Amino acid sequence: MNRTTPMARDLVLLGGGHSHVIVIRRWAANPVPGVRVTLVSPDTLTPYSGMLPGLVAGHYSVAQAHIDLARLCRWAGIRFVRSAASGVDAAGRRVLFDTRPAIEYDLLSVNTGGAPCLVNVPGAAQYATPVKPVHRFHARWRGLAARARESEDSLDIGVVGAGAGGFEILLAMNHALNSVDGRPVTATGTLRHRLHWFVRDTALEEYPAAVRRMALRACAQRGVDCHHEFDVVQVNADGLLSATGQEVRLDAVVWCTEAMAAAWPTESGLDCDERGFIRVSDTLQSLSHPDIFAAGDAAMQRHHARPRAGVFAVRQGPVLAENLRRAVLGERLRKYRPQKRFLTLLSMGDRTAIGRKGPFIAKGTWVWRWKHWIDERFMFNFNKLPKFIEQKSQQMPSAFQAELASDEMPDGMRCGGCGAKLGGDVLASVMDELDVLERDDLPVGLASRGDVAVIDCNGRPLAQSVDQVRSFVDDPWLFGRIATIHALSDLYAARSLPQSAMVIVTLPWGAESTMRRELSQLMRGVTVELSRAGCALSGGHTAEGLETSLGFVVNGYSPGAGESGANGPRAGDCLILTKPLGTGVILAAAMRARAAGPVLDMALESMLQSNARAAGIIGDLGTSAMTDVTGFGLAGHLLTLLRSSGLSCHLWPDAVPALPGAAALHREGIHSSLQGANVRMLRSGGNMEALDAIPGWELLTDPQTSGGLLAVIPTEAVDGCLEALRRAGYDRAACIGMLAARAGREPLIACGPVPQSFRCP
Question: What is the set of active-site residues?
Fold first, then answer.
């Protein structure tokens, strides 16, 4: 999407289901200029239900069976918000959350999954493992599989649910737990654990008798015990109880009955059926709210009720995409007519399957290969994305132009500032040319080349720092939080307590409604983190620009602001790093849609971790120098510390913690745009030995956003410091090197292995 196009409408996609991923794929190829699309999902990876049995059986990996929503959205130019919605304010056109501000919309589409139906059977919620929602089931299944592998005794595992989902999960679990070296249970005759299928009425009741016979024969051949007419009325810690009083002892229960609707659509005032599913017309619009669309498991089509199967969500996707497009343009909508006959493929765990469409019924390995081909072809569209998206050149719809024309827009290119950090050499060369006034009440200023200035306010030192960052995530609330944490970090490194902050916000020009929504989300993120830090927002300024950016002036009080320890760093002191490196390369990869969603998630979680507690712990132990690691990378900030102390250091690259995926992305040739300047700064003047000889050297020059603290502490305090940091949640804190006396013209930073004589916890 052309980010310079002013935004005039907000389309929000709630849920990362099959219909919505198709909407995203199609919208990317032909977007509507002026429409900002946001996907809201609680998870970065969304499972493809057709591959879930194969994932459980061990035929597919997690990556093969899941769609990476973060990567897909980045590629498509669509905003991704990772958060669980709690409801919809239909009258106010807002998606509601428990953990973040509401997101406003002009048009909403709902494609969320069903919820497990556990409330009607006592004990089910406490003791059973539900298959729905699918995205949570796999983690629970891995725990159950690990328990089965480690158990010396044979386990009895029950599956409750007589439908296709229950049958497929049953045989997939049986294959995973009882196959030997990948050979199916039917070939080995060995049953390590016993599976039980509990059927209240008729197994696979919606299928022809021939399919039911094939399924039951497959269960018998694989040693599965089928319990017919077993109406479960209670789930206990050790088994199931039926309506007739029959008890079956089990070690685990998997619940795969028909899913129920989430509570929020009914609570939000939407027209829902008796089970709580959103009632929609043939155009997939809500019957009560035409600005809300719904598809997949969240919806019930009024005139064409169909089973809740993934095939219908997939078929609804193209129609939903077209109707969302037509709705924002005010055009006539298409009607969706579900097919009466549809292909059903039931996997039987061991790469065999049953196929049925109308009167046609077949089974065998070739049917499984057919199913595999269909599933792989579907997933190819989302996991093998083209490098570039070819988009049609389009004009903004005239209705949007009329709305935007009401705002004053000067001719020519709109002004914009640069939110990126300049290279260290460029910055230093310009600063050296300046004739700067010195004042007695500014004991620590530009001459110190530090991140914090110290102002003498009638004997009370005020620490002050400034920061500006360009948006690196699409979610403005998340960006506001991280940018604030990043700005406050300079104060923590100077052992100052935040007191007040002023903010400069730059937003892309757009319709007044969209700019208000963006500013609200952004500033709510800012104020959340300022309040957590005990820092008051005292004012600010706004401006229009080509892209979103945030600037801060932060102030803090501390008797020791900007000062080093009593004796300063000494040879033999150790270097402590509180957080892993790698945010620069991961964000660079994310911009290119080449970072896996879970990798980006872990980087964002690291950036959301404040340095406040770490600074307090290190300060209490008597640090002699401390800085935060940001744009100039670990090596660049270490170099500044060494120059000010007159020392050199032995750096241990093998001990430097890295975020998962960062090193692999560097090996793929991905780097932050600032990394080249960081490398040049190190190579000039003999600051560091030959970089190419250092394994993983790219990580040392990787620019960090909201990075950790780099501190100097006495060797005898290392163990206690790391233990305290890890208790406080800095799990990857590490000792990464030792200071040494400077010797002649040797490089300031020498790299090598951790000395055998040094024991680092």
Answer: 418
